[in-house]
Amino acid sequence: MTNHLADNQKIDMERFNQVFFEECAEHLAEMEKILVSLADEEPDDEQLNAIFRAAHSIKGGAGIFGFQDMTVVTHVLESLLDKLRNHEIAFAASMIDLFLSAGDVISMQLAGHRDSAEVHQESVDLIRAELQKVIESASPVAAVELERSLLIEDLTDKNLLADTGSLNCYELMFRPDIDLFRRGVRLENLFAELEDLGSLKVEAVVADSEDFSSFDPELCVTSWKLLLKTDASEADIRDIFEFVAEEEQLDVTLIADVSDKSVVAADAAEMSLNPLNGGASIPAPALSAESVGIKVGRRAYDKNELAPSAYGRRGVEAESSIRVGVTKVDQLINQVGELVITQLMVSQAAGLLDPVLHEGLHRSLQQLERTTRELQQSVMSIRLVPISIVFSRFPRMVRELAAKLGKTVELKTVGDSTELDKGLIEKITDPLTHLVRNCMDHALEKPDARVAAGKDACGTITLRASQIGGRIVIHVIDDGAGLNRKKIISKALERGITASETMSDDEVWQLIFAPGFSTADEVTDISGRGVGMDVVMKNVQSMGGRVHILSEPGKGTQITISLPLTLAILDGLSVAIGDEKFIIPLNSIIESLQPAPGSLKTVNGKNVVYVRGDYIPIIPLYQLFNMQARITDPANGILVLIDVEGEKAAVLVDALLDEHQVVIKSIETNYRKIDGTAGATILGDGRVALILDVGSLLQMRKNLLNYNK
Amino acid sequence: MQTGQEIAGRGGTNIPSEFLTFTLGSEEYGIDILKVQEIRGYDPVTHIANSPEFVKGVINLRGVIVPIVDMRIKFRVGEPTYHEFTVVIIMNVLDRVIGMVVDGVSDVVALSPDQIKPAPEMGSALDTDYITGLGTVNDQMLILVDIEKLMGSEEMQIVDRVNQEEK
I need a labelling partner for A375 at 20 to 30 A (CA). Which of A54, A536, A669, B147 fits? Predict the structure, then answer.
């Protein structure tokens, strides 16, 4: 039974850890984003506070979840940031790099806990020492303080000591009865009230006689030693305790008039010697003491911020998102899809009824239809995330690469808020990284070369995302040297790829997508090994996307990636063959036509159709799929012209039915792959239609021809 | 009720299992009830190109694409006709949802291990490999099928094999 309990707790902890990991990663990303956006400028208070908050949250979380190693670096980082924030240390541009590397170390530690990745302890120690060095070099006092607890930092915080004119320092000894918590007293509220009177230092004194085996977490076995610096009278303080404590439970002693800071500092230091976690063997009271400590601590921070706006923003952030598993969202999408189909079926059935007699029903059904459609759109939009998630990782990469390569580069991003499917976001990151690296390494020239070419010494890379129709278009634009036509052709010939001087620019640019192709004269650790563009092409194609290159010598290059809005939905044309319906993806269709009698020819007994100067082979779908079609003679049917990577074909179908968006469903979940199809979808009548994979159709046709030979 | 039986049988190894029985031609078969998701009528299917004859096609089962196999065609028993009384057993096997057309569903029976006899080599429609044993219920023989093994087999061609020799 106890075993069972332990298991449960373990599982729970894992779940909480997961939340911490995610939050920590977000904080790190936020921190990095701000740091990079600074571009060596001195951060303003708002930004410093934001960085500080991130570091602080990571430290707090790491402490609570028991990742002590992570608190080491964050603590030093936090201390330094705090000094900066309070203008005790002057900002230096070098700090940004230091903070960035500190962030790296923390994410390395994070990965260590999350994925059991390797952690280089040396780099942890190194960065810690470096941070420490900055703190010490700027302020010798600070270094001593560093080792003290967070609370003392608050106390010595100059804001709290700012006006010490007529303050009294009270020591309060609060020994509550053991039923305190059961009476529903919230200590944090109590302490907050006290804090309103002045500055407060809280220390928990844990009863050491308590036996762990008989320990009851609902009982309060802790007493509290409070150090309050205020201009309020003893009576005011007792007022606050009025409903909480009996008179004999609270001792109030006036220690001293605080007229100089050293007294408080000394007191605070003395208190810090008295270990806060003295009762660590009894976890619950120690924890509650700690959490109160954090609470009070945070209050002090918020006072430092320009309060209302800072509060307001944090509140909004907390409310604006919730975490939901992707599987849950997918399930929701599935169910809404079902709802849409059911709604269509009901509408079709109602369509048979007399519109005059059933006017109310028809009106309600229209309402239902509209609501369902809106619901479907909202649900689909859950999976959409802004592309800024991908873009935001580039500023830092560009910054570092530029430093490494001795180039000055400015990165512009346009259309950060363009949204696309989460699945696509994950897959587009690597190709984009390749492209930006390529730009940095090959395309952009060194500053002197740029000046010599009459260009600004600072190169520009622009990432632009936009939605055009049902597709997301991402441009990667640089103002570098452009692609070198001659070099590409000669390199291609070297590698045994067919190429010639007479090829069009477009065709030449396509050569760089060949596996292993590189025009770089030397291989660097950034790029040039020729494993790049072919991977880019493959990844983009696997998402149903296309890559297009425009380049002009001396002016620059523009690489365009166009992606479908989502992996889950496809624009398709439904066609009929015999009794079955098929969906042809709209993005591969050029046109549909009814062949003119003279345009049909045969080559080697195979049908081709003559369209605007091209002889295009006809794919008899009924033959490929071994099924009964109404029309077997191309002259009577309809030809759908498709284009697969430049290869054209005409699919013979009985009739065109409709054009619509379909939800892609996998057949392989419950069955195996079916040749010539890319999945299935459910039509308005609830029946299944197969989605044609035009690429594999062409292959099937070739196989069929070979077989017939 | 099931738990009651289980507790009663816990004394020995005699824990009864429950089987869904169905008919194919003149023979009575049984499959583990825990593999059965639901039983439904036969809906029109979407045919799948170049698939074996007994794979009738796929249907939309509440948003999930489910393949339908007709055991009557596969084992050449009974008459493959489709009308309002045609029964499809939807099963959860091999992490998949698969529909199976049979002549009719009869009953759910509980059989304890000592009621199940090993199957002799014999001429039933099903290969002996997929038969776990023979049970007797009310003097009628019940052929117990390892449905998971059968559906995963090469000859059903439902699961993609890495090295598919056929075809």
Answer: A669
Inspect the interface and report whether the beta carbons of B63 and A580 lie closer than 8 Å: no
**Paired sense of beta strands B140-145 and A556-564, if any:** unpaired
Q: What is the pLDDT of residue A302?
A: 37
Confidence at residue B154, expressed as pLDDT on a 0 to 100 scale: 78
Q: Residue B71 pLDDT > 80, yes or no?
A: yes
If one counts the domains in chain B, the total is: 1
Segments of chain A with pLDDT less than 50: 1-3, 5-8, 140-165, 258-318, 528-529
Cα A171 to chain centroid, rounded: 49
CB contact under 8 A, A335 and B51: no
Q: Which domain holds residue B109?
A: 4-166
Give the contacts of A63 (CB within 8 A, at least 6 positions apart).
Answer: A71
Query: Mean pLDDT, to the nearest integer, of B92-106?
Result: 89
Q: What's the gap in Å between the CA of B124 and the closest CA on chain A?
A: 27
Q: In what order do the strands lie in the sheet with A655-663?
A: A655-663, A569-577, A580-585, A688-692, A677-682
- Whether residues A672 and B98 touch (CB distance < 8 A) is answered with no
* CA A545/CA A557 separation, integer angstroms: 19
CATH number for the domain spanning B67: value is 2.40.50.180
Crossing angle of helices A121-138 and A94-115, in 10° steps, is 150
Model confidence, pTM: 0.51
Which chain A residues are within 8 Å of B57, Cβ to Cβ?
A: 688
Among chain A, residues having any CB pair with chain B shorter than 8 Å are 334-335, 337-338, 341, 580, 624-627, 665-677, 680, 682, 686-690
Query: Which pLDDT value is given to residue A319?
Result: 54
Supply the pLDDT for residue B34. Answer: 92
